[in-house]
Amino acid sequence: MGTATAGGDVEAGFAKLQGEDFEYYMQTYSIVLGRNSKKSTVDVDLSSLGGGMNISRHHARIFYDFARRRFALEVLGKNGCLVEGVLHLPGNPPVKLDSQDLLQIGDKEFYFLLPVRSILGGPLGPRHYPNHSAAGPVVPHYNYHLAPASGSLVKKPRRDYYDEEFDDEDDVGGGGGKKIRRDGYDGYGYSGGKPSLPAPMDKKSEGRSRVDRDADNLQLQQLEEKDVVSSVATVLSDLCGPGEWMPMEKLHAELLEQYSSVWHHSRVRRYLTSEDWPGPESKGKPWYGLLMLLRKYPEHFVINTRSKGRVTLEFVSLVSLLS
């Protein structure tokens, strides 16, 4: 889910895409860019924004890499994507994204921008995390003063500031944080307004506490789980009638067909393979991780098991289909 606008309305998001004539706020940790078709829709339809004819239906995915604590771009379309003038093609490793990186897909250019504050932060003070069993997207709150998105894209002179939040574990060298480029721009690291000098950093203010970072990791993981749960609920509601059950094997096959090329490979491994579950209970059950996830949400799913000799079969249905 996200918000695409043509003006300068105040919005909130984990990140922002800023084009000459559009702006899009990421309100989930993963979005797909491409073009809409009769078979599927994408989060950002670049074709309708003047991206030209060389845009694939699923051309690229921008996502938050939990392991490396940074945003990245995964190229899916055969014509590739330009990031800071460098062409990246499908099959290459995901490209690390820094704030104010200039992206080009087809004929469309736009900036990738990060909020100056935490992607999951908010006003300084006590942090309260909501119960994620409630429905609805989780959106961070910021106070923004955003300039209109109209006008040509002009690459601005860049200054560096340090922020430990998006610490790049692969970077070599001293220092506790990764260097992130931005211009003085209220809310997001983008052009406009007077540059605001970075405040001096000391040991007390360097980065955020490990407790907060762990809490953010947990919140992002819960967002991923909710996204998978939503996909499962969609498949079950489409294929099952009232009172019907679906074998986990069939559910796994449906998810593999519909989402294996859309989900990030780490999510596919976690929920559609048994690679992360090496125990004997997962042997021959590539859906074992998915089964463990669904059991965490008894308010939405009912799991039924049947045994045939030494073989245990699992079936799943929606609570709404059985009530």
From TrEMBL:
Keyword annotations of the record: Nucleus
The keyword Lyase belongs to this UniProt entry's keyword annotation: no
Source superkingdom: Eukaryota
Region of interest called Disordered, as start-end residue ranges on this chain: 164-213
UniProt-listed Pfam families: FHA
Record's compositionally biased regions (Basic and acidic residues): 201-213
SUPFAM superfamilies linked: SMAD/FHA domain
PROSITE patterns in the record: FHA_DOMAIN (PS50006)
One Gene Ontology cellular component: nucleus
Gene Ontology biological process terms from the UniProt entry: regulation of ribosomal protein gene transcription by RNA polymerase II
GO molecular function: sequence-specific DNA binding
Domain spans labelled FHA: 31-88
Subcellular location(s) of the protein: Nucleus
Coiled-coil segments: none
Protein name listed in UniProt: FHA domain-containing protein
